[in-house]
Amino acid sequence: MDSVTQAALGATVAGAIAGKRCNAKVLLAGAALGTLPDLDVVLDYGDAVSNTIKHRGFSHSLLLLPPFALLISWLYCRFRPDAFWTFMRVFLLTVSVLLTHTLLDAMTTYGTQLLWPFAGYYELRNIFIIDPLYTLPLLIAIGAALIFKQRGGVWCQSVVLLSTAYLVWGYGAQQIVANRVEDNLLSQNLPNQHVLITPTPFNTLLWRVVVMDGEHYWEGLASLLDDEQHIDFVSRPLQSWPLSDKPETLRGLTAFSHNFLNYREENNALIVSDLRLGMANNLAFEFIYAQRGSDGEWQLLAAPLRHTSERSLDQLGALWMRMKGDQSINADLEVMDLSLNR
């Protein structure tokens, strides 16, 4: 999730655990702890792909965060002894904030290495990385806790339950769409072995569907507010890696994306795209791996580069209409180039 949401979640969780002891210092400490795991973005792993796929690694590991919380708790109690904030209370607050951070990240589409150093990317894909309906209640709870100090903990506890219920709703909505997708794939004679279902920007009502199918893939949108259950899929060409050798970073990108990858040539550059993050022809994670030389042969770059394209908010109106069930728009996915992921 975005940094604002993670800081707000950390503050709210800390306030909920503090209860009657909730105050500005507790909320600030929770916000700081909630931001801490994402500081791994300052690390440079040597190239654009490695920086992408190694984010949410060791700093998000369920195996490392509890020992780290123990260390923080020991240091705090060592230098700031307090009758109420015993070691166990400090540890409970610290580990709760850190673990809720990484678990929330695992509910987005990006992928989180929950069991680092063991290989594997885990994602539930039941919430977009920026969702105002999730974040705003957290911010309201923080504001209320600062204003109504005597009941600050109650506000935080209530909103933690509310935000958790919203995540459960997102998962439920995803399963509703998944059943609809399964029926459509069967009726339209499309494969169902490699399917992605993920929310579109800022909501849990409109969902993007990607279906991999040999030499092409299919992309469609499904809203919970649709009157018709039919999903219109747009077919897109799916290319393969044209070189005999696969760089280590490409193998890592394949694992990171669960092989939702596409390849294309553009301006003599070989571009590899992660199909999960973005929409249509405007994907969030694309990388240049090789350049075509004057002899017509591909020459691998020493390190892959990030390929950037312009992002536009012009189609948010169309996205809003499609979310409300207007299937006449049906995203002409060639036009709906929305990619608001970080």
UniProtKB/TrEMBL annotation:
Swiss-Prot/TrEMBL keywords: Hydrolase, Membrane, Transmembrane, Transmembrane helix
InterPro entries assigned: Transcription_regulator (IPR053170), YdjM-like (IPR007404)
A GO molecular-function annotation: hydrolase activity
Pfam family, one: YdjM
Chain ranges passing through the membrane: 58-77, 84-104, 124-147, 154-172
Cross-referenced PANTHER family: HYPOTHETICAL MEMBRANE SPANNING PROTEIN, MEMBRANE-BOUND METAL-DEPENDENT HYDROLASE
Protein's name in the database: Metal-dependent hydrolase
